[in-house]
Design goal:
Strand order of the largest sheet: 1-2-5-3-4
Organism: Vitis vinifera
Helix content: 40-55%
Number of helices: 9
Radius of gyration: 19 Å
Strand content: 5-15%
CATH architecture: Alpha-Beta Complex
InterPro entries: DSP_laforin-like (IPR045204), Dual-sp_phosphatase_cat-dom (IPR000340), Prot-tyrosine_phosphatase-like (IPR029021), Starch-Glucan_Phosphatase (IPR052832), Tyr_Pase_dom (IPR000387), TYR_PHOSPHATASE_DUAL_dom (IPR020422)
Number of domains: 1
CATH topology: Protein-Tyrosine Phosphatase, Chain A
Shape: globular
Order of helices and strands: HEEHEHHEHEHHHH
CATH superfamily: Protein tyrosine phosphatase superfamily
CATH class: Alpha Beta
Structural class: alpha/beta
Largest sheet: 5 strands, mixed
Protein name: Phosphoglucan phosphatase LSF2, chloroplastic
Keywords: Carbohydrate metabolism, Hydrolase, Protein phosphatase
GO molecular function, one term: carbohydrate phosphatase activity
Length: 239
């Protein structure tokens, strides 16, 4: 999905019994994990209409998008938080998953949040439904607001993730670059996908942009949308 030098790969090792046959419990866990990934990727390809896949068994993966912004897959254990802090100087984690996403992958989120607190990393949640462009569209303003606030604090990098880091998280990063970094939508989209190949919903970002412009009480022209968004999104940012 991304160049090998862009993320840290972790692999599952299967223990063998003395007879050389995998222990049944381990075998069942691996089988269940493989089935879970296969089911997830089948749904993702069908709903998002792109060929990208998520390989949970390879561990957390990510790409540096800007000097202050990283987009990736879900941290799976507290050690992933240590890696982000020590290797990438991450000071904020923006999590776009719903509770059911975390439960599906059997990730112990409380232990990850606990480790974030211990390392003084601010953990923020802005849930959006997976594979749902309407949910993403409605959730983008608050998610981008939290991202803009965290970056503006200047304390370290922001790690934005969903489950696979291929839909919701890159969409938030693209919307941020579009709304706040002086890029048009196509440039922001191409900038991110050149560093992390993925297929987030461009239509959801367009829709969220339209919603914000439409709801501006001053009805300012679309060309000045970045200033409008900055004014609107700062309300309640980081909450």
């Amino acid at each position: 999905m991304v160049p090998s030098n862009s993320f840290k790969v972790k692999r599952i090792s299967c223990k063998l019994s003395e007879s050389g046959v995998e222990e049944s419990a381990t075998s069942n866990r691996v089988s269940n994990s493989n089935n879970r990934m296969e089911d997830y990727n089948t749904v993702m390809k069908g709903m998002m209409r792109n060929p990208y896949e998520y390989h949970h068994d390879l561990g957390m993966n990510y790409a540096l998008i800007t000097d202050h912004l990283i987009v990736g897959s879900q941290p799976q254990k507290p050690e992933d938080v240590d890696h982000l802090k020590q290797e990438e100087n991450v000071a904020y984690i923006l999590n776009l998953q719903q509770d059911k996403d975390v439960e599906y992958w059997e990730v112990d989120l409380p232990s990850i949040i606990k480790r974030c607190k211990e390392l003084e990393i601010r953990h923020m949640r802005r849930p959006a439904r997976d594979f749902d462009p309407d949910s993403l569209r409605s959730g983008l303003p608050k998610a981008v607001s939290s991202l803009e606030w965290a970056i503006s604090e200047g304390k370290g990098k922001v790690y934005v993730h969903c489950t696979a880091g291929l839909g919701r998280a890159p969409a938030v990063a693209i919307a941020y670059m579009f709304w706040f970094c002086g890029m048009d939508l196509n440039t922001a989209y191409d900038t991110l996908t050149s560093k992390r190949p993925c297929g987030p919903s461009k239509q959801a970002i367009r829709g969220a942009t339209y919603d914000l412009a439409k709801n501006d009480p001053w009805k300012e022209p679309l060309e000045s949308l970045q200033n409008v968004l900055l004014k609107m999104l700062r309300i309640g940012r980081g909450t």
